[in-house]
Amino acid sequence: MIHTGRHFLQIPGPTNVPDRVLRAMARPVIDHRGPEFAALTREVLEGLRPVFGTIGPVAVYAASGSGASEAALVNTLSPGDRVLIFETGHFSQAWRHLAERLGLKVDYIPGNWRRGASEDDLEVRLTSDGGHMCKAVILVHNETSTGVTSRLSEIGPVLKRLGHPALLIVDAVSSLASMEYRHDEWAVDVTVCASQKGLMVPPGLSFNAVSEKALARSRTAKLPRNYWDWQDMFKQNQSGFFPYTPATSLLFGLREALQMLREEGLTEVFRRHRRHADATRAAVRAWELKIVCEDPREYSSSMTAVFMPEGHDADRLRKIILEQFDMSLGAGLSRLAGRVFRIGHLGGFNDLMLVGTLSGIEMGLRLAGVPHKDGGITAALNVLAPSHTALETPV
Ligand SMILES: Cc1ncc(COP(=O)(O)O)c(C=O)c1O
Protein backbone atom coordinates (compact mmCIF):
# COMPACT_ATOMS: atom_id res chain seq x y z
CA MET A 1 0.00 0.00 0.00
CA ILE A 2 1.37 3.44 -0.95
CA HIS A 3 1.07 5.98 1.85
CA THR A 4 0.91 9.69 1.22
CA GLY A 5 1.44 12.57 3.65
CA ARG A 6 3.29 12.09 6.92
CA HIS A 7 3.59 8.96 9.01
CA PHE A 8 1.96 9.28 12.46
CA LEU A 9 4.48 8.08 15.04
CA GLN A 10 2.20 7.80 18.06
CA ILE A 11 4.13 5.29 20.11
CA PRO A 12 5.18 6.57 23.55
CA GLY A 13 8.66 7.25 22.22
CA PRO A 14 10.65 7.66 20.15
CA THR A 15 8.44 10.66 19.45
CA ASN A 16 8.04 12.90 16.41
CA VAL A 17 11.18 15.01 16.05
CA PRO A 18 10.30 18.65 15.23
CA ASP A 19 11.63 19.95 11.89
CA ARG A 20 13.64 22.58 13.76
CA VAL A 21 15.51 19.84 15.63
CA LEU A 22 16.08 17.83 12.45
CA ARG A 23 17.46 20.94 10.71
CA ALA A 24 19.73 21.71 13.65
CA MET A 25 21.34 18.28 13.25
CA ALA A 26 21.72 18.54 9.46
CA ARG A 27 25.16 20.13 9.52
CA PRO A 28 28.75 18.98 9.23
CA VAL A 29 30.18 17.04 12.15
CA ILE A 30 32.61 19.17 14.15
CA ASP A 31 35.79 18.49 16.11
CA HIS A 32 34.73 17.20 19.50
CA ARG A 33 37.91 18.56 21.05
CA GLY A 34 37.63 22.03 19.51
CA PRO A 35 36.32 25.33 20.91
CA GLU A 36 32.98 25.24 19.05
CA PHE A 37 32.16 21.91 20.66
CA ALA A 38 33.15 23.09 24.14
CA ALA A 39 30.69 25.97 23.82
CA LEU A 40 27.96 23.57 22.67
CA THR A 41 28.58 21.24 25.65
CA ARG A 42 28.37 24.08 28.15
CA GLU A 43 25.17 25.40 26.62
CA VAL A 44 23.51 21.97 26.59
CA LEU A 45 24.59 21.07 30.15
CA GLU A 46 23.29 24.41 31.46
CA GLY A 47 20.07 24.09 29.45
CA LEU A 48 19.31 20.60 30.81
CA ARG A 49 19.33 21.63 34.47
CA PRO A 50 15.99 23.47 34.61
CA VAL A 51 14.33 20.61 32.73
CA PHE A 52 15.46 18.18 35.45
CA GLY A 53 14.74 20.77 38.14
CA THR A 54 18.27 20.68 39.48
CA ILE A 55 21.19 22.98 40.07
CA GLY A 56 23.51 19.93 40.16
CA PRO A 57 25.41 18.20 37.36
CA VAL A 58 23.83 16.17 34.55
CA ALA A 59 25.85 13.44 32.81
CA VAL A 60 25.12 12.97 29.10
CA TYR A 61 25.88 9.58 27.54
CA ALA A 62 25.94 8.43 23.92
CA ALA A 63 23.53 5.60 24.77
CA SER A 64 19.84 4.81 24.98
CA GLY A 65 18.00 5.11 28.30
CA SER A 66 19.09 1.62 29.37
CA GLY A 67 22.69 2.81 29.37
CA ALA A 68 21.85 5.64 31.76
CA SER A 69 20.00 3.14 34.01
CA GLU A 70 23.16 1.04 34.22
CA ALA A 71 25.23 4.17 34.86
CA ALA A 72 22.97 5.11 37.79
CA LEU A 73 23.57 1.74 39.48
CA VAL A 74 27.25 1.16 38.78
CA ASN A 75 28.20 4.62 40.01
CA THR A 76 26.41 4.37 43.34
CA LEU A 77 26.32 0.75 44.51
CA SER A 78 28.62 -2.13 45.46
CA PRO A 79 28.28 -5.88 44.78
CA GLY A 80 25.71 -7.51 47.07
CA ASP A 81 24.00 -4.22 48.03
CA ARG A 82 20.24 -4.45 48.65
CA VAL A 83 17.94 -2.30 46.55
CA LEU A 84 14.20 -1.88 46.65
CA ILE A 85 12.29 -1.72 43.37
CA PHE A 86 8.57 -1.08 42.99
CA GLU A 87 6.83 -3.37 40.52
CA THR A 88 4.91 -1.04 38.23
CA GLY A 89 5.20 -2.82 34.87
CA HIS A 90 7.56 -3.85 32.09
CA PHE A 91 10.12 -1.14 32.81
CA SER A 92 10.31 -1.82 36.55
CA GLN A 93 10.95 -5.42 35.53
CA ALA A 94 13.83 -4.27 33.33
CA TRP A 95 15.32 -2.48 36.36
CA ARG A 96 15.04 -5.67 38.39
CA HIS A 97 16.86 -7.69 35.72
CA LEU A 98 19.56 -5.06 35.41
CA ALA A 99 20.12 -4.88 39.17
CA GLU A 100 20.24 -8.67 39.51
CA ARG A 101 22.69 -9.03 36.62
CA LEU A 102 24.96 -6.48 38.29
CA GLY A 103 25.02 -8.63 41.43
CA LEU A 104 22.65 -6.57 43.57
CA LYS A 105 20.01 -8.10 45.86
CA VAL A 106 16.56 -6.94 44.87
CA ASP A 107 13.49 -6.56 47.09
CA TYR A 108 10.75 -6.29 44.49
CA ILE A 109 7.61 -4.72 45.97
CA PRO A 110 4.74 -6.40 44.13
CA GLY A 111 2.27 -4.36 42.09
CA ASN A 112 -0.66 -5.07 39.79
CA TRP A 113 0.62 -3.12 36.71
CA ARG A 114 -2.30 -0.70 37.08
CA ARG A 115 -1.00 1.38 39.96
CA GLY A 116 2.15 3.30 40.78
CA ALA A 117 4.61 3.12 43.65
CA SER A 118 2.99 3.74 47.01
CA GLU A 119 4.47 5.96 49.69
CA ASP A 120 2.75 3.80 52.35
CA ASP A 121 4.50 0.63 51.10
CA LEU A 122 7.79 2.49 51.07
CA GLU A 123 7.27 3.74 54.59
CA VAL A 124 6.51 0.22 55.87
CA ARG A 125 9.59 -1.24 54.15
CA LEU A 126 11.98 1.43 55.29
CA THR A 127 10.64 1.54 58.84
CA SER A 128 11.39 -2.16 59.21
CA ASP A 129 14.91 -1.63 57.84
CA GLY A 130 16.44 -0.35 61.05
CA GLY A 131 19.89 -1.64 59.99
CA HIS A 132 19.78 0.50 56.83
CA MET A 133 20.50 -2.51 54.63
CA CYS A 134 18.58 -0.99 51.73
CA LYS A 135 21.04 1.13 49.76
CA ALA A 136 18.74 2.46 47.06
CA VAL A 137 15.06 2.82 46.27
CA ILE A 138 14.41 2.56 42.54
CA LEU A 139 11.22 3.53 40.81
CA VAL A 140 9.89 4.33 37.37
CA HIS A 141 8.20 7.73 37.52
CA ASN A 142 6.01 7.19 34.47
CA GLU A 143 5.62 3.48 33.71
CA THR A 144 5.55 3.54 29.92
CA SER A 145 3.99 0.08 29.67
CA THR A 146 0.88 1.09 31.62
CA GLY A 147 0.52 4.88 31.53
CA VAL A 148 0.71 5.14 35.32
CA THR A 149 2.65 7.99 36.93
CA SER A 150 3.82 7.47 40.49
CA ARG A 151 3.32 10.45 42.77
CA LEU A 152 6.96 11.19 43.29
CA SER A 153 6.38 14.42 45.16
CA GLU A 154 4.93 12.28 47.98
CA ILE A 155 7.46 9.46 47.77
CA GLY A 156 10.72 11.45 47.89
CA PRO A 157 9.99 13.03 51.28
CA VAL A 158 9.40 9.59 52.90
CA LEU A 159 13.14 8.81 52.91
CA LYS A 160 13.92 12.20 54.35
CA ARG A 161 11.21 12.01 57.00
CA LEU A 162 12.43 8.57 58.17
CA GLY A 163 16.06 9.67 58.05
CA HIS A 164 16.84 6.62 55.88
CA PRO A 165 20.14 6.96 54.00
CA ALA A 166 19.09 4.98 50.88
CA LEU A 167 19.49 6.77 47.57
CA LEU A 168 16.39 7.52 45.53
CA ILE A 169 16.94 6.55 41.88
CA VAL A 170 14.18 7.53 39.47
CA ASP A 171 13.57 6.53 35.87
CA ALA A 172 12.05 9.62 34.25
CA VAL A 173 12.53 8.37 30.68
CA SER A 174 8.91 8.97 29.65
CA SER A 175 8.04 11.82 32.01
CA LEU A 176 10.83 14.35 31.77
CA ALA A 177 9.98 17.42 29.68
CA SER A 178 6.35 16.24 29.49
CA MET A 179 5.35 16.33 33.15
CA GLU A 180 6.39 18.30 36.17
CA TYR A 181 9.68 17.00 37.46
CA ARG A 182 11.77 18.38 40.36
CA HIS A 183 14.96 16.43 40.96
CA ASP A 184 16.20 18.68 43.79
CA GLU A 185 12.91 19.51 45.48
CA TRP A 186 11.69 15.90 45.49
CA ALA A 187 15.02 14.73 46.94
CA VAL A 188 15.87 12.46 44.02
CA ASP A 189 19.50 11.33 43.97
CA VAL A 190 19.80 10.05 40.41
CA THR A 191 17.33 10.82 37.65
CA VAL A 192 17.64 8.69 34.54
CA CYS A 193 16.34 9.97 31.22
CA ALA A 194 16.77 9.59 27.46
CA SER A 195 16.53 11.89 24.47
CA GLN A 196 13.78 10.28 22.42
CA LYS A 197 10.60 11.16 24.31
CA GLY A 198 9.67 14.51 25.87
CA LEU A 199 13.01 15.95 24.81
CA MET A 200 12.04 15.52 21.12
CA VAL A 201 15.48 14.34 19.96
CA PRO A 202 16.14 11.02 18.15
CA PRO A 203 17.23 8.03 20.26
CA GLY A 204 20.89 7.90 21.23
CA LEU A 205 21.42 10.25 24.19
CA SER A 206 20.72 9.48 27.82
CA PHE A 207 21.20 11.28 31.10
CA ASN A 208 21.92 11.04 34.80
CA ALA A 209 21.07 14.05 36.96
CA VAL A 210 23.11 13.53 40.11
CA SER A 211 22.67 14.83 43.68
CA GLU A 212 25.59 15.68 45.94
CA LYS A 213 24.72 12.63 48.06
CA ALA A 214 24.89 10.34 45.00
CA LEU A 215 28.14 11.91 43.89
CA ALA A 216 29.62 11.30 47.35
CA ARG A 217 28.43 7.66 47.20
CA SER A 218 30.14 7.23 43.82
CA ARG A 219 33.50 7.80 45.52
CA THR A 220 33.16 4.58 47.50
CA ALA A 221 30.83 2.49 45.28
CA LYS A 222 32.57 -0.69 44.16
CA LEU A 223 30.62 -1.95 41.15
CA PRO A 224 33.02 -2.06 38.20
CA ARG A 225 32.60 0.75 35.70
CA ASN A 226 34.56 2.52 33.03
CA TYR A 227 32.45 4.11 30.28
CA TRP A 228 29.77 5.17 32.77
CA ASP A 229 32.05 6.65 35.40
CA TRP A 230 30.74 10.02 36.65
CA GLN A 231 34.07 11.20 38.01
CA ASP A 232 35.74 10.99 34.57
CA MET A 233 32.69 12.51 32.94
CA PHE A 234 32.23 15.51 35.24
CA LYS A 235 35.95 16.26 35.27
CA GLN A 236 36.07 16.49 31.47
CA ASN A 237 32.74 18.31 31.25
CA GLN A 238 34.19 21.21 33.23
CA SER A 239 36.24 22.19 30.20
CA GLY A 240 33.38 21.40 27.78
CA PHE A 241 34.59 17.96 26.72
CA PHE A 242 33.84 14.26 27.20
CA PRO A 243 36.11 11.34 28.14
CA TYR A 244 35.33 9.80 24.72
CA THR A 245 33.69 10.77 21.43
CA PRO A 246 30.26 12.25 22.16
CA ALA A 247 27.23 12.12 19.85
CA THR A 248 27.96 15.54 18.35
CA SER A 249 25.04 15.69 15.90
CA LEU A 250 22.49 14.68 18.52
CA LEU A 251 23.83 17.36 20.84
CA PHE A 252 23.08 20.01 18.19
CA GLY A 253 19.55 18.61 18.09
CA LEU A 254 19.29 18.68 21.87
CA ARG A 255 20.41 22.31 21.98
CA GLU A 256 17.59 23.23 19.61
CA ALA A 257 15.02 21.16 21.52
CA LEU A 258 16.00 22.84 24.78
CA GLN A 259 15.58 26.21 23.08
CA MET A 260 12.08 25.15 21.96
CA LEU A 261 11.18 24.11 25.51
CA ARG A 262 12.39 27.49 26.81
CA GLU A 263 10.37 29.35 24.20
CA GLU A 264 7.17 27.51 25.10
CA GLY A 265 7.96 27.56 28.83
CA LEU A 266 7.94 24.40 30.91
CA THR A 267 4.69 25.30 32.66
CA GLU A 268 2.96 25.55 29.31
CA VAL A 269 4.66 22.35 28.06
CA PHE A 270 3.22 20.46 31.05
CA ARG A 271 -0.22 22.07 30.62
CA ARG A 272 -0.25 21.07 26.94
CA HIS A 273 0.57 17.45 27.81
CA ARG A 274 -2.12 17.36 30.53
CA ARG A 275 -4.72 18.73 28.13
CA HIS A 276 -3.88 16.20 25.42
CA ALA A 277 -4.01 13.40 27.97
CA ASP A 278 -7.43 14.62 29.19
CA ALA A 279 -8.75 14.69 25.63
CA THR A 280 -7.36 11.21 24.93
CA ARG A 281 -9.00 9.73 28.01
CA ALA A 282 -12.29 11.44 27.09
CA ALA A 283 -12.14 9.65 23.73
CA VAL A 284 -11.30 6.30 25.32
CA ARG A 285 -14.20 6.61 27.76
CA ALA A 286 -16.59 7.55 24.97
CA TRP A 287 -15.49 4.43 23.06
CA GLU A 288 -16.30 2.52 26.28
CA LEU A 289 -12.82 1.01 26.38
CA LYS A 290 -10.91 0.63 29.63
CA ILE A 291 -7.89 2.75 30.61
CA VAL A 292 -5.12 0.64 32.20
CA CYS A 293 -4.34 3.20 34.92
CA GLU A 294 -6.72 2.57 37.82
CA ASP A 295 -6.28 5.67 39.91
CA PRO A 296 -7.04 9.07 38.33
CA ARG A 297 -4.38 10.65 40.59
CA GLU A 298 -1.83 8.57 38.67
CA TYR A 299 -2.94 9.28 35.11
CA SER A 300 0.00 9.85 32.81
CA SER A 301 0.16 13.06 30.79
CA SER A 302 2.55 11.61 28.24
CA MET A 303 0.72 8.45 27.15
CA THR A 304 -2.40 6.37 27.63
CA ALA A 305 -2.57 2.57 27.68
CA VAL A 306 -5.92 1.07 26.73
CA PHE A 307 -7.28 -2.46 27.30
CA MET A 308 -8.88 -4.24 24.35
CA PRO A 309 -12.29 -5.82 24.93
CA GLU A 310 -12.02 -9.51 25.88
CA GLY A 311 -11.31 -11.72 22.86
CA HIS A 312 -9.87 -8.94 20.67
CA ASP A 313 -6.21 -8.68 19.81
CA ALA A 314 -4.50 -5.31 20.23
CA ASP A 315 -1.75 -6.24 17.76
CA ARG A 316 -4.28 -6.97 15.03
CA LEU A 317 -5.83 -3.54 15.64
CA ARG A 318 -2.40 -1.89 15.49
CA LYS A 319 -1.58 -3.73 12.28
CA ILE A 320 -4.79 -2.57 10.61
CA ILE A 321 -4.17 1.02 11.72
CA LEU A 322 -0.59 0.91 10.45
CA GLU A 323 -1.56 -0.54 7.09
CA GLN A 324 -4.65 1.59 6.49
CA PHE A 325 -3.67 4.91 8.06
CA ASP A 326 0.12 4.80 8.32
CA MET A 327 0.06 5.30 12.08
CA SER A 328 2.20 3.45 14.64
CA LEU A 329 0.72 2.86 18.10
CA GLY A 330 2.57 1.31 21.03
CA ALA A 331 2.26 -2.44 21.59
CA GLY A 332 1.35 -4.06 24.90
CA LEU A 333 4.57 -5.14 26.63
CA SER A 334 5.36 -8.37 28.52
CA ARG A 335 2.24 -9.64 30.27
CA LEU A 336 0.13 -6.95 28.54
CA ALA A 337 1.15 -8.12 25.03
CA GLY A 338 -1.87 -8.35 22.73
CA ARG A 339 -4.20 -7.05 25.47
CA VAL A 340 -3.25 -3.39 25.40
CA PHE A 341 -2.40 -0.68 22.89
CA ARG A 342 -0.61 2.50 23.92
CA ILE A 343 -1.15 5.99 22.60
CA GLY A 344 1.80 8.38 22.82
CA HIS A 345 0.79 12.03 23.16
CA LEU A 346 4.10 13.52 24.13
CA GLY A 347 6.93 15.53 22.68
CA GLY A 348 6.50 17.78 19.64
CA PHE A 349 2.74 17.44 19.39
CA ASN A 350 -0.36 19.59 18.89
CA ASP A 351 -4.17 19.52 18.90
CA LEU A 352 -4.57 18.51 15.27
CA MET A 353 -1.99 15.75 15.57
CA LEU A 354 -3.97 14.43 18.53
CA VAL A 355 -7.27 14.60 16.69
CA GLY A 356 -5.64 12.80 13.73
CA THR A 357 -4.30 10.15 16.09
CA LEU A 358 -7.64 9.55 17.79
CA SER A 359 -9.41 9.53 14.41
CA GLY A 360 -7.02 6.85 13.19
CA ILE A 361 -7.84 4.77 16.26
CA GLU A 362 -11.59 5.21 15.91
CA MET A 363 -11.44 4.25 12.23
CA GLY A 364 -9.24 1.29 13.13
CA LEU A 365 -11.71 0.11 15.78
CA ARG A 366 -14.43 0.15 13.14
CA LEU A 367 -12.40 -1.68 10.49
CA ALA A 368 -11.15 -4.27 12.98
CA GLY A 369 -14.68 -4.95 14.23
CA VAL A 370 -13.75 -4.11 17.81
CA PRO A 371 -16.88 -3.47 19.88
CA HIS A 372 -16.97 0.19 20.88
CA LYS A 373 -19.27 3.21 20.94
CA ASP A 374 -18.90 6.03 18.41
CA GLY A 375 -18.23 9.55 19.62
CA GLY A 376 -14.64 9.40 20.85
CA ILE A 377 -13.57 12.22 18.56
CA THR A 378 -16.43 14.49 19.64
CA ALA A 379 -15.56 13.80 23.28
CA ALA A 380 -11.94 14.78 22.59
CA LEU A 381 -12.99 17.92 20.71
CA ASN A 382 -15.13 18.91 23.68
CA VAL A 383 -11.98 18.92 25.81
CA LEU A 384 -9.80 20.66 23.23
CA ALA A 385 -12.38 23.27 22.16
CA PRO A 386 -15.15 23.34 24.77
CA SER A 387 -16.86 26.47 23.35
CA HIS A 388 -16.03 29.88 21.94
CA THR A 389 -15.86 31.25 25.49
CA ALA A 390 -12.69 29.19 25.99
CA LEU A 391 -10.83 31.78 23.91
CA GLU A 392 -9.80 34.87 25.79
CA THR A 393 -10.08 37.05 22.68
CA PRO A 394 -12.83 36.16 20.21
CA VAL A 395 -11.66 35.56 16.63
C1 LIG B 1 10.25 4.18 31.51
C2 LIG B 1 11.33 3.65 30.63
N1 LIG B 1 12.49 3.28 31.17
C3 LIG B 1 13.50 2.80 30.43
C4 LIG B 1 13.38 2.68 29.07
C5 LIG B 1 14.51 2.12 28.29
O1 LIG B 1 15.03 3.12 27.46
P1 LIG B 1 15.77 2.75 26.10
O2 LIG B 1 14.83 1.94 25.29
O3 LIG B 1 16.05 4.14 25.51
O4 LIG B 1 17.01 2.05 26.44
C6 LIG B 1 12.20 3.06 28.45
C7 LIG B 1 12.02 2.94 27.00
O5 LIG B 1 10.97 3.15 26.45
C8 LIG B 1 11.14 3.57 29.26
O6 LIG B 1 9.99 3.95 28.71
Could you describe the 3D structure shown?
The protein is of the alpha/beta class. 41% of the residues lie in helices and 16% in strands. The protein is built from 13 helices and 14 strands. It has helices at residues 19-25, 35-52, 65-76, 90-101, 119-127, 152-162, 212-218, 230-237, 248-264, 266-287, 314-325, 351-368, 376-384, and strands at residues 8-10, 58-62, 82-86, 105-109, 134-140, 142-143, 148-149, 167-171, 190-194, 205-210, 290-291, 303-307, 327-331, 340-344. The strands form three sheets. It has a seven-stranded mixed β-sheet with strand order 2-10-9-8-5-3-4, with helices on both faces. It has a five-stranded mixed β-sheet with strand order 1-13-14-12-11, sandwiched between helices. Strand 13 and strand 14 (340-344) form a beta hairpin. Helix 11 (314-325) packs across helix 12 (351-368).
Helix content: 40-55%
Summing up helix and strand content along with how strands pair, one would put the structural category as alpha/beta
- Count the beta strands: 14
Mean pLDDT: 97
